[in-house]
């Protein structure tokens, strides 16, 4: 099977993004992916049936983040998603003949080099791979083609014929599909789709319905189950899925599907797991009749675990714990069952002692044609010094400075909570930040400070100067390129508006109000040519939670909105390009790319990095993943597109938790019935 798989080529014409204009910008964009340095997933498997000494086998190679596996039909090889080499792609693990069930053989096979099943282009999210039963077609989710409107998901199901590389989109135009599952005969694909209404509320409110369509061409698309996600076929007429009930519990359900000449319909739907604990992401297989593997969050347990439920007729459902006896203190995600019904796979953190070298800057491939390089940094609010040699970033808490080539050490220059960072244009080694809690109300004590590091990394004389005095939530300082002024936001009028003060001596030497109104203006950035200040604001709907990007001249004229992702949309953290003609920003413009409950370690999984010309045209998506990307900045300094290591080992791996959408609040008393806070 390997040869046709490796020979797979996409038909570029179909998937190529529309050619954007190249803006003559260059330089480097650096951003953060929340928590990414704290987890490294691998795919593992355990016996599906209880056994006295279950041997957990690692099926992936301990490199990068590997997740959402699926067994290939007729073999124990595993298809999976990995973000190695700077973009998400699909891989086939060379593992595992049924005989190779010893840990050593499995590890040797897993160590073999991997080639992606799909070529690098297009740069897009690829997710939930599976093969048709005859092994001829790879079916998967991709974000290769933009949605027609802002805040609509780009996720759609594609099929690639492996012998020819011929690729077709199976999802109907104008809708998004997640979590595809191919039926045992190969004739049908079931998906979770937010439907034509799209995404209206918060991440935890994302509801999907289950549609079924033909694997060959996406035809006969039919809504089969209202309110359900993550379908999995047990046989040609039985689909398991998850649904959140009216109290808030996720449960697993079974639907009987009938196919008639008139189309498909669900003839019955029954709940399999009772309320009282969360059960989601079911996996069934014709090879394991009467069994369904699920992930659960049970009260009293801090972890998501894989359990197998015996749902064969006439008995009370019996539960069998798969992962808790083996790795009690870890989250286990998104199970899948081998074709012969003997093993259940899942992903979890690979734990300590993994093979990754700690990265300071991870090169991320972005959809071309690029004139800049793109990096993820292990920290928030990164900014480059104006000679490109140093990067400041915050650790929430702590403010750090590193050399951008990875030499030297990560210096902590402030230990408390500080955000964000920006460098003075004229005085070398002077950084502006604000000190106090983030995401706080207008009256919270936060002040803008400048921190002087001295000229080079040997200088240990770090001094700090407070520039604002009243603590009225003064934050997000950004200096003018002539070195004279700093723009910042302040809550001193009881609303957050923008002000400009003396850069060296602070507000004591003069302050001027730039914006005024009963709303929030924040996250300001002064353009390198001095002409504009970009900022995020909810002035179009004060207090409504929706932010858009605006610009204003430093003298207060010329105010205009640059980019907005629509009602309820969040577009934040603008930063000018070196030529002042574009902005990089973070936004939910492309909505979410996976069912959030299957990807729970991201608080705002819709966060992606985009650029836009300052006239509002030419919006380009730079990142394609289901992680939370944010706080970008842009420097004229061009960093070679390759990973930059660092001398310090990152700590605290895999310390994330399942997120807030698992909480259940009693509607009468407001008390938590179940809490899984982040
Ligand atoms: C991908 O990354 C691996 C290490 O993770 C490296 O050995 C390999 O050369 C890279 N491949 C490409 C095509 O860059
Ligand atoms: C440290 O730096 C400050 C401000 O740059 C300066 O006034 C002070 O003399 C320096 N102290 C030492 C010991 O170098
Ligand atoms: C305000 O600044 C802009 C940009 O520098 C300039 O074009 C404009 O003439 C200024 N307007 C006033 C009233 O000073």
List the helices and strands and how they pair.
Blueprint: H1 2-6, H2 12-15, E1 28-33, E2 41-47, E3 57-58, E4 66-71, E5 78-82, E6 89-93, H3 103-110, E7 126-131, E8 137-142, E9 156-161, E10 167-169, E11 178-182, E12 188-193, E13 209-214, E14 222-225, E15 229-235, E16 238-244, E17 250-260, E18 263-271, E19 278-283, E20 291-297, E21 305-310, E22 318-321, E23 333-337, E24 343-349, E25 359-363, E26 373-377, E27 380-384, E28 390-394, E29 399-403, E30 411-414, E31 418-423, E32 430-435, E33 447-452, E34 463-466, E35 475-479, E36 485-490, E37 497-502, E38 506-513, E39 521-526, E40 533-537, E41 548-552, E42 560-563, E43 571-576, E44 582-587, E45 608-613, E46 620-621, E47 629-635, E48 644-645, E49 664-665, E50 672-674
Parallel strand pairs: 1-26
Antiparallel strand pairs: 1-47, 2-3, 2-24, 4-5, 5-6, 7-8, 8-9, 9-10, 11-12, 12-13, 13-14, 15-16, 16-17, 17-18, 19-20, 20-21, 21-22, 23-24, 25-26, 25-48, 27-28, 28-29, 29-30, 31-32, 32-33, 33-34, 35-36, 36-37, 37-38, 39-40, 40-41, 41-42, 43-44, 44-45, 45-46, 49-50
Bound molecules: 2-acetamido-2-deoxy-beta-D-glucopyranose (3 copies).
Residues 452, 461, 463 line the site of one 2-acetamido-2-deoxy-beta-D-glucopyranose.
